[in-house]
Amino acid sequence: MKKYALILLVLISGITFGQEVPKVLKTGFSKEALAQTITMQDGKKTTMSKILAKHKGKIVLVDLWASWCGDCVKAMPEAEKLKEKNPDIDFIYLSLDRKEDSWKNGIVKHKISGSENYWFADGWKNEFNNYIDLNWIPRYMVINQKGKIAKYYAIVPQDPEIQKTIDNLTKM
């Protein structure tokens, strides 16, 4: 019953907030998406390709968020529970904050400093976000051990498909 209530909640929130599930659920990244530059906490630039390469051989949960996003902030306790339940999974936070200071202050304020945090200085409209059909945040993706997309689209960390995907990848 709880599972059906969650699914109903996800459907209602999608309708209420205008979020639309992409028509094609992608399993890999384009060359352009991987070449997207992103800022590290120390101010240096890197690419999505280098970030994913760093985690090759590991399961990764990508959390797209922003400190100004009420839905993102509300989801953080559930994301933390997911992290605690899956200590061997790497968590990467990609911020869509408008300003670098807002992003860095959000990391501290929301206590997500124990994970990898990056910021899209180019803003919402960039090659990576365009490729993944980003139309709302928060957004969660699971990346498999080979750097391919295993779960393309989730809008809440408690989406049962996230854990199911992680469990299936762990068995491999």
From TrEMBL:
InterPro entries hit by this protein: Thioredoxin-like_fold (IPR012336), Thioredoxin-like_sf (IPR036249), Thioredoxin_domain (IPR013766), Thioredoxin_ResA/DsbE_sf (IPR050553)
Keywords: Cytochrome c-type biogenesis, Disulfide bond, Isomerase, Redox-active center
Record GO biological process: cytochrome complex assembly
Entry annotated with the keyword Isomerase: yes
GO cellular component: cell envelope
Molecular-function GO term, any one: isomerase activity
Localization: Cell envelope
SUPFAM superfamilies attached to this UniProt entry: Thioredoxin-like (SSF52833)
Domain of life from the UniProt record: Bacteria
Classification via Pfam families: Thioredoxin_8
Thioredoxin domain boundaries: 27-171
PANTHER family, alphabetized: THIOL:DISULFIDE INTERCHANGE PROTEIN DSBE
Name assigned to this protein: Thiol-disulfide isomerase or thioredoxin
Organism per entry: Halpernia frigidisoli
The organism's taxonomic lineage, starting at the top: Bacteria, Pseudomonadati, Bacteroidota, Flavobacteriia, Flavobacteriales
